[in-house]
Design brief:
6 helices; 13 strands; alpha/beta; binds ribulose-5-phosphate; 221 residues
Length: 221
């Protein structure tokens, strides 16, 4: 099976978690694009969606799915999103597409986070994928120096602005042994909007596309 076929498999599987007549949270990225396409097949059975990026919102609308502002949604039973790396504890690195802030907000609101990935995203320890950090532009150099102190090599994502008008520093070379602790620590650096560690609110369910089919992992405890 190709990587795209594995992504399509988990995208289809995620439909089983969508709650009828409710709004569904939709993340961003290539796996989520396939989920949006699958969602179109049941669009008459959902109220609509909230989207973590302008690109996802646009794709949802093109399929005729109503897109709500998160502020007008009181209840969000499920959020479906991809990841750049994920561990067996369902801690993730996200933000490869730069939508991490909106993704983290929607994940916080949702009752259940369903992560959809192909098996290449599963890792024993987070950090090989450079950790994205969204930063207010005037704090860019300060954050870079703070990350050097933490033994990371920060690289400005060239020519990129987030949907919120900020910058991304991709931080290479980290070995993240305690994801919830590092997530909290980085959030304390002035100028940081969001870091790409999703550990304090990790996924509840991981659907991993592997050649033998979809593996389902659930958060323990
Ligand atoms: C975007 C994300 C995506 O979920 C992540 O980059 C995975 O994307 P893909 O499904 O294309 O591999 O966090 O900010």
């Amino acid at each position: 099976m190709t990587q795209d076929e594995l992504k399509r498999l988990v995208a289809q599987e995620a439909l089983k978690h969508v709650v009828e007549d409710k709004v569904v949270g939709v993340g961003s990225g290539s796996t989520v694009n396939l989920f949006i396409d699958a969602l179109a097949s049941i669009k008459g059975r959902i109220e609509g969606a909230v989207a973590a990026s302008e690109a996802s919102a646009e794709r949802l609308r093109r399929h005729g799915i109503r897109v709500f502002d998160l502020n007008s949604v009181a209840e969000l039973p499920v959020y479906v999103d991809g990841a750049d790396e994920v561990t067996e504890h369902l801690h993730m690195v996200k933000g490869g597409g730069g939508a991490l802030t909106r993704e983290k907000i929607i994940a916080a609101v949702a009752a259940k986070f369903v992560c959809i990935c192909d098996a290449s995203k599963r890792v024993p320890v987070l950090g090989k994928f450079p950790l994205p950090i969204e930063v207010i532009p005037m704090a860019r150099s300060y954050l870079g120096r703070e990350m050097l102190k933490r033994k990371a090599q920060p690289v400005l994502r060239e020519g990129f602005k987030t949907d919120n008008g900020n910058l991304i520093l991709d931080c290479h070379g980290l070995t993240i042994l305690d994801p919830p602790a590092l997530e909290a620590e980085l959030n304390q650096i002035p100028g940081v909007v969001t870091n790409g560690l999703f550990a304090r609110r990790g996924a509840d369910v991981l659907l991993l596309g592997a050649p033998g089919g979809v593996q389902t992992l659930k958060r323990k405890g």
